[in-house]
Write a structure and sequence with these properties.
The chain is of the alpha+beta class and 260 residues long. The chain contains 5 helices and 12 strands.
Length: 260
């Protein structure tokens, strides 16, 4: 496509970031705050010498991290695609890194053409917190029952109405989502919940993890999972886990032609 006499290109960019110092991914109009999108667009504009607007695969909250976030954007620049990530990393702050850039079909959209995502939530159980894990893992000072938590994970697999597992303010057409897989992994005092699905509601992963931890410590009964899925009652579940333990690991795309 030609734009203003120049050929328009669509770039798919995979990035990593430490979300500690940011108010989430999405740029917020009228607010002078640091966001991942804001920083990324500012640095892209300097590299390409033109305004750039990125479209993310989804939004992450303040404090949430990403190892495989994907954005797409249009440009008329002729910079070779294999040099884009390197050029961008010279401009980006140290807590945001461009992993790779790919030139894709003009119809490709980072959000609308994603068919699934994988998140990992990390926490550690112990008597005292650790200064070394404080930015990337949630400290849980309780004994946890692995078997009960694992059984609860099994109940969440499949397609359900996950309205009870979303925070108020979710602006969606349907609360139905499919969890492809959910695994509870324990390595000493370090725990992880790995979860993949076709999409996630606002705060869905953090609410799931909060419920699993409450089940593991005996604060909630495992039956709350089935009841919450059946009744969509958010009050049956406890508080959501804090954001800093959450990381967007991967966004899934099909190798297809991206037709409108």
């Amino acid at each position: 496509m030609v734009l203003g006499g120049k050929m328009k290109r669509n770039i798919k960019l995979t990035i990593q970031y430490d979300g500690t110092n940011y108010y989430g991914f999405q740029r917020q109009a009228g607010r002078n705050i640091d966001t991942i999108q804001g920083k990324l667009e500012l640095c892209l504009a300097k590299v390409f010498k033109e305004p750039i607007k990125v479209r993310g695969s989804g939004r992450t909250d303040g404090g949430v991290h990403a190892e495989g976030q994907v954005v797409s954007f249009f440009t008329t620049s002729v910079i070779p695609v294999e040099k884009i990530a390197l050029a961008l990393n010279h401009r980006l702050p140290r807590d945001i890194i461009a992993l790779k850039a790919e030139e894709v079909d003009l119809n490709f959209h980072a959000q609308y053409h994603a068919f699934g995502k994988k998140y990992v939530y990390s926490f550690y159980q112990g008597v005292t917190p650790s200064p070394f894990y404080r930015l990337y893992s949630y400290f849980v000072p309780y004994q946890l029952d692995f078997e009960k938590m694992e059984a609860a994970c099994t109940l969440l697999k499949g397609t359900h109405n996950f309205k009870a597992f979303s925070s108020s303010g979710s602006n969606v057409k349907t609360f139905e989502r499919t969890i492809y897989d959910i695994d509870l992994i324990k390595n000493g005092n370090h725990w992880q919940v790995s979860i993949s699905g076709n999409g996630f509601l606002y705060n869905m992963v953090r609410i799931i993890v909060g419920a699993l931890i409450d089940i593991g410590r005996g604060r909630l009964d495992i039956s709350c999972i089935e009841e919450a899925l059946e009744t969509t009652n958010r009050n049956l579940l406890g508080k959501k886990a804090p954001p800093h333990g959450l990381c967007l690991k991967e966004v899934y795309y099909s190798p297809i032609n991206y037709e409108e």
